[in-house]
Design brief:
Layout (H helix, E strand, L loop, with lengths): L12 E14 L3 E8 L2 E8 L5 H9 L5 E10 L7 E12 L17 H6 L1 H4 L3 H23 L3 E2 L5 E2 L11 E4 L2 E5 L4 H9 L4 E9 L12 E10 L3 H22 L1 H7 L12 E4 H11 L12 H11 L3 E7 L16 E9 L2 E8 L4 H10 L8 H4 L9 E7 H8 L21
The chain binds adenosine-5'-triphosphate (ATP) and magnesium ion.
């Protein structure tokens, strides 16, 4: 239907446009319609005495957010949005919208996030909301491009799996014929297996599922993870890739999405500078201990409150490095000279964690020991352990949360704003 119909930002002259009725103003002898599509807004000016009878009949019947098709002449009009107006010859109602609307698309009324998510299709008609997803699309594009240019192979690993990545309880069980199965919490084990398969550099952008009963502004039960794994690399090497990727992604968004950034009124968008600071775990907890009441000692997880005070102190993206082995997964490589700490890191935005990664254990014996030390049964990891017996290269990698990356990049207050149809404890529809 769009061809040969034009977008609502046509040139001067005859135009044939389709879009939604954004706003109506009736001043008696003169009516103004604002027609909207993804390119912008066009004013349709209707001098009631000068337009055909059919146009008058249609504008009497039409409601906001109906789809209409309007033909007529476009002229310069300084005061109108986009500096032009259309006086119609025809005004056709293509599909009438019911009233009242579940959501005010013209944004004059503040709306709760829940109401917005319930009517997400209408919410996303709002330019400032759509802008988030244009930017997300651009960010995903440049990241895919980055990996291809650097020689990474894109892979797709199963989301229906038989075993937990880390043996946690945070898994969604699913009915899989007569077997026990789960939704995968991370592609970790599979991307490591691809190192044994000789792919050397792999990446995957895909869903991860966490059955965590969180009720926070940064946790989802279905998230999008950007994962890499690289052979013959250590943790330092993949940290450099990570910071370079983050900077390049910000730069691309900055260069290509200025209209969308303006739409969101994103005032604190700044391209971060590499290299990011490297903060050892012990120094991180010292900063936290000075500023928060709850005691924190070596081997404790860094709480959300601690994350905030450390983030305030750091003021920009930074890495926390040299984590206690006791609080990192069995596949993180311990330091040879001090196995109480390991070659794991987190990439932090001042507001929250964005990524976790590590150099991995590639020695079969050490891996079996580490699995057992975590109280897990190595036998249930046989499919994963097998490749480590037949020539596994040393390797390192990370997983980066795409939703949190967009949230922090755009200063959104809730991760759900960065996701079209978020999944949380209370939301499974739409
Ligand atoms: P957190 O401690 O903040 O809950 P995590 O350490 O459990 O995160 P990882 O398993 O390290 O998360 O996953 C790597 C990255 O994937 C995280 O840094 C985050 O960006 C993203 N991620 C993980 N779980 C979630 C989730 N439930 N919702 C949104 N993003 C997530
Ligand atoms: Mg983590």
């Amino acid at each position: 239907m769009r061809i040969p119909i034009q977008s609502v930002t046509p040139d001067i002259g005859h135009a044939d446009v389709c879009g939604w009725v954004h706003e109506v103003r009736d001043l008696g002898g003169l009516a103004f319609f604002l027609i909207r599509d993804r390119t912008g807004i066009l004013q349709v000016t209707i001098p009631k005495k000068k337009v055909p009878e059919a146009v008058l009949a249609a504008i009497k019947r039409v409601s906001r957010e109906s789809v209409v098709r309007v033909t007529g002449t476009v002229k310069v009009m300084e005061k109108a949005p986009g500096g032009r107006e259309l006086v119609p010859d025809t005004f056709e109602i293509v599909n009438l919208a019911e009233t009242p609307l579940p959501l005010d698309v013209s944004e004059k009324v503040g709306v709760e996030l829940d109401t917005r998510l319930d009517a997400r299709f209408l919410d996303v008609r709002r330019p400032r909301v759509a802008a988030v997803f244009h930017i997300r699309s651009a960010a995903m594009h440049v990241m895919n491009d980055y990996f291809h240019k650097k020689g990474f192979i894109g892979i797709t690993t199963p989301k229906i799996v038989a075993a937990a990545t880390e043996g946690g309880t945070e898994l969604f069980p699913i009915a899989y014929f007569d077997k026990e199965a789960f939704l995968n919490q991370s592609p970790q084990l599979y991307k490591q297996m691809m190192m044994a398969a000789g792919f050397e550099k792999v990446y995957e952008i895909g869903p991860i599922f966490r059955a965590e009963e969180h009720n926070t502004t940064k946790h989802l039960n279905e998230a999008t993870s950007i994962d890499i794994e690289v052979s013959y690399a250590d943790h330092l090497e993949v940290m450099r890739i990570l910071e370079d990727l983050i900077v390049k992604t910000y730069e691309y968004v900055n260069a290509t999405c200025s209209d969308h950034l303006a739409n969101i009124e994103c005032t604190n968008f700044t391209v971060p500078k590499a290299p990011f600071a490297r903060l050892p775990y012990t120094e991180a907890i010292e900063i936290a201990a000075k500023k928060i009441a709850e005691p924190i000692k070596f081997g404790d997880d860094i709480s959300a409150a601690a994350e905030h005070v450390i983030g305030d102190e750091m003021g920009a993206h930074y890495f926390i490095v040299d984590w206690p082995s006791s609080i990192r997964p069995y596949y993180a490589m311990p330091y040879e000279d001090d196995p109480t700490i390991c070659k794991a890191f987190d990439l932090m935005h001042p507001r929250m964690e964005l990524s976790s990664g590590a150099q991995r254990v590639h020695q079969h014996n050490l891996l079996v020991q580490q699995i057992a030390k975590k109280g897990l049964n190595p036998e249930s990891f046989e499919f994963y352990l097998k490749p480590f017996r037949y020539g596994m290269p040393p390797h390192a990698g990370w997983g980066l949360g795409a939703d949190r990356l967009i949230m922090t990049m755009l200063g959104l207050s809730n991760v759900r704003e960065a996701v079209l149809f978020p999944r949380d404890m209370h939301r499974l529809v739409p």
